[in-house]
Amino acid sequence: MKKISLLVLFITLLGCKKDYKPENKIKEDVTFLADDKLEGRQTGTAGEQEAAAYIAKRFKELGLQPSGTSDYYQAFSFKPKTDPHSEVSFTTMAEDGTITGTNVLGYIDNKADNTIIIGAHYDHLGYGGDGSLYKGEKAIHNGADDNASGVAVMLNLASKLKETNTANNYLFMAFSGEEMGLLGSNYFVKNPTIDTKAVSYMINMDMVGRLKQDSTLAVYGTGTSPIFKQVLNSHNDKFKLIEKESGVGPSDHTSFYLADIPVMHFFTGQHEDYHKPSDDSDKLNYEGMETISNYIFEIITDLNDNGKLAFRKTKNESEETPRFKVGLGVVPDYMFDGKGMRIDGVSEDKPAQKAGLQKGDIVIKLGDSAIVDMMSYMRALSVFKEGDSTNVRVERKGDTLDIDLKF
Questions:
Q1: Which of 87, 264, 284, 366 has the most beta carbons within 10 angstroms of its beta carbon?
Q2: Cis peptide before 169 (omega within 30 of 0)
Q3: 380 three-state secondary structure
Q4: Per DSSP, what are the bridge partners of residue 69?
Q5: SS3 188
Q6: What per-residue confidence (pLDDT) applies to 11?
Q7: How far apart are CA 91 and CA 53, in angstroms?
């Protein structure tokens, strides 16, 4: 009887192994993060905190070391640029309106000289608010593709890289505050928990859950290191790659590019559910996510023995904003809460760069308009058209400078 029982157990386990699919764990992670009970994972809410705890638990299960300022967590505080919506319950709001968000960080320490950062934001829009494209009644925005998908692929890569490719260390980061302006990644770059001088490159994944039938995969930042294009194409036998050289874009890789770190950002494209309550877990291509994870793993493996990668500045291929006829060609510092608009990055061959504006400059006047915050900057910018000339007043290291600029 004992032998028969063992035989039945063996056959059962064999059957389970045969039915196992690697994308199942990816689906499990997405399903948890994109569940209604997390109420859209808006930064500063209970849903965000529950998501952060889940990611920290997964890091621990995978054997990653804590790399935050408090265990796996790195807290950052900010004041919303607009008044919080009445339906939002911020559990971390202070009396002065300051909200606390949380990054989650796990580390694989291979005692190597260089570190690779692999990241994805985990926050979303809660019940919608300003970022929502939905026009109906109040509803939870679960953000399955944006960006539970990126977090799930990041966790999948962590499981693959544990005990392998030991020529580098690996820092896995789940950012919060991305939807409010890259707040978490911006904060980490300015308050790192590791030596960022030893960072070889950064990989970001944002919306990687909707791989289409034609297998189109966009990769941004391909020009930020000379080796990226070669490696991307040498391992590509499954995707229709769309390569964008610029290191600047609307996701967390931008924060690292502006710190002179090579970046690659993976993205499967926009869709009709973007920033709507209909971005749910049942619409994701989980097999495609596993394929993307395998592709990124092959790229990391190929780059494993290249030491610290060379960094290269790129031209910004995106317009600063589609609502304006012109742009300065700068990346604003969304964490800045002083008077004016502080520049966090300057794009090559754009008006700001040609005029001599620099990272760290605080714009306090544009033309005839005083600049006190982001909104006044946007209003001032909207009156100009291509070919116009004006004057920009900036504060730079204690000095006030008036600079001529042409759009």
A1: 284
A2: no
A3: helix
A4: none
A5: helix
A6: 52
A7: 15
CA 342 distance to own-chain centroid:
21
Whether the predicted model's global pTM rises above the 0.85 cut: no
Radius of gyration of the chain (CA): 22
Model pLDDT, residue 292: 98
Type and span of the H or E element at 369: strand 369-370
Both tokens assigned to 84 = 């919080």
- Give Cβ neighbours of residue 356 (< 8 Å, ≥ 6 apart): 403
Q: Is 116 exposed, middle or buried (0-12, 13-18, 19+ CB in 10 A)?
A: buried
Whole-number Å distance between alpha carbons of 184 and 176: 5
- Domains, in order of start, for the chain: 21-305 (3.40.630.10), 330-406 (2.30.42.10)
Nearest alpha-carbon partner for 169 in 270, 308, 366, 282: 308
Tokens of 394: 């900036």
Q: What is the DSSP letter of 191?
A: S
DSSP state string for 67-87: -SSBTTEEEEEE--SSPPPTT
Under DSSP, is residue 288 helix (H, G, I), strand (E, B) or coil? helix
* Angstrom distance (rounded) from CA 235 to CA 118: 19
H or E, element range at 119: strand 115-121
pLDDT of residue 94: 58
CB 111 within 8 A of CB 168: no
In angstroms, the CA 151 to CA 58 distance is 11
Single out the residue of 163, 247, 236 nearest to residue 204, CA to CA: 247
Q: Is 199 helix (H, G, I), strand (E, B) or coil?
A: strand
CB atoms within 10 A of CB 382: 14
| Residue 298 near residue 290 (C-beta atoms within 8 A) | no
Q: Which residues of the chain have pLDDT under 50?
A: 2, 83-87, 318-322
Could you count the other beta carbons within 10 Å of the beta carbon of residue 342?
Answer: 20
DSSP 201-270: EEEEESS-S---TT-EEEEE-TTSSTTHHHHHHHT-SS-EEEEE--S-SSSTHHHHHTTT--EEEEE---
Structure tokens at 362: 């605080």
Residue 142 structure tokens: 């679960």
Please, what is the angle between helix 23-33 and helix 286-302, to 10°?
Answer: 110
Paired with 90 in beta bridges are 45
Provide the pLDDT for residue 321: 42
Q: What is the pLDDT, as a whole number, of residue 322?
A: 42
